[in-house]
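Schema walk-through. Below, the input block comes first and the output block second. Nothing else is stored per chain. Lengths vary across the set, and this one has 595 residues.
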Amino acid sequence: MFLSERNSPNKFIKFIPEVNLETVKGDYQLQNHEDFPTIIFVSFENEFAPVGGLNAVMNRLPRQMARMSPEKAILLLTPFFSRIPKSARALEKGAITVIHKGFKVPFRGQESDARLLRYVEDVGGDAKFTMYLLDAPYHFLASENPYINPNVPQGLFEDSCFLCAAVPEVLQIIPEKPPFLLNLQDWETALVSKTLPSSIRHKCVITLHNPYDNSCNMTLHFPGLGDAIHLDPGTLTFRSTVLKQTLPEIRGISTVSDVFARELMNDPLQTKVLAPHLQEVFHEKGVIATTNGIFKDPDPILREILTPAGILEYKNSQRGELTKVFNSKEGAGLLARAWGSCDLNDTTTPLFLLFGRDDPRQKGFDVAAKAIREVLEEKGDIAHFVFTPIPGPRGLGTIAFLEQLSKDFPKSVLVFPFRLSVGYNELQTATSYFLMCSLYEPFGGANEGYASGVPVVARATGGLVQQVCPYNYATLPRDVQMLVDEFHGEKQQPTGFLFKEDASLIPNLTQDWTSIIKAKFLDTNPIGDAILERESIPLYQAMTGAAKDAIIQAIDLFKADPEEYAACVLRGVQLLGKFTWEKAVGRYLNDLYTR
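--- output ---
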């Protein structure tokens, strides 16, 4: 009853071999880009100041491009966050070195001090990857999350402007030669397209990892900044944004999955609510899909297991490892600080894991909590749910509904509202399902589930559609079925469950999305409850109802057919072969950089 109407999947599947680099090069016929000997990624995140998906991409993509194009200089230009411990340690230990002790950056009508640091890594053969880090005494002072400086609420915009203003100066210092192809990342670096003078031979393209933008009217608060970054103050109305001003001049636009590229131009959430001001330029230039590769390599043991019985044995052993970690002194201390509890060693009850940064306008933790509450009220202690949210800038107030959920179901829900010092990897490999209820998802982390030996239950949005082949195909809305057909083919090999509300049944879809995204509860003091504010919205009701149904379907499969559940794990590992950084590099070089 769980299978696609059309196919009964093979339970005994061998792992697809790793993609051969030469094969990928042949498939993509990488074009000659000798006119741009230097490719520079400009990013606000880096591996020494990580926080989310952008860092994960920057950690993989430039290195793979360097391997595939050793004749080119592949660089990452990024801020140095001196107060973030990982950055400070890298400098102290000599991994990062100072290569220019002092230069001036024209900024806010003054000459601001800066210095340039460098990190170099051999990435195989003759290929090298170089990261240049911009250090400045009055900028990039966040101490944990690079996007958040509690002492300077508007600091992100000013820091991003400073980074963009410094790029022309940096390009005159580094030894790598022009012309430069600059691959900007998100709105925080988009103003580079304005700061670079024509005297520096270059081309700018941009990759959007989310639909975020920033109002440019804040520039008016910084006298002289308009001149410093080549903006006409006369155009800076209260409706001006960074991307609205820069995208028309940027040669190519890409995003990180095929489905999200379409959603940016067709989904009402994007076209009517989040990015209506960008639709003209999106449709004029198009949005190229430079789909990500995987962020986590499969556990080597999973590569060797070829049968469902082997998978079940592996999963049970991982539950034992998880229990061992949380029975330790450090693990027990974490449990004592957590909200709620559940029997982590109970291998007969499915365990769902929800993780990631807390963003009430994107992540969907409240959608999951509402659906889970309904499941537990209707079915009792039928499954266990573990949340590991990373609190956002407003702290724990935005996830107070998770604390209440854990109080109401203290034996079924466990919440770690802080970063785990131990046990996170064990949680990932021991859990039965990843649960992802994103309102939208440019790419998504389903591949991390497969690499850990875990099937995925996800809302059918963005890259998650490409990553999850659903058991419950027959119950999905027709538009989702069409996407599944396109990306997973006729002979589907299910790796989890998808859910999606039927948008055709929502009479005021745009109005409902607007009400959800407004998130008025964030503006109250104390912060309000996301579920209480949203639960009367028809779209939200349909969304949580669909999530509830998918969770129950996943529980039923786990309990009724363990062998089929285990085969689902095998197919998830197999699906990883579709998402390679070699393929991603091909799309960047051939599709985006040729614009």
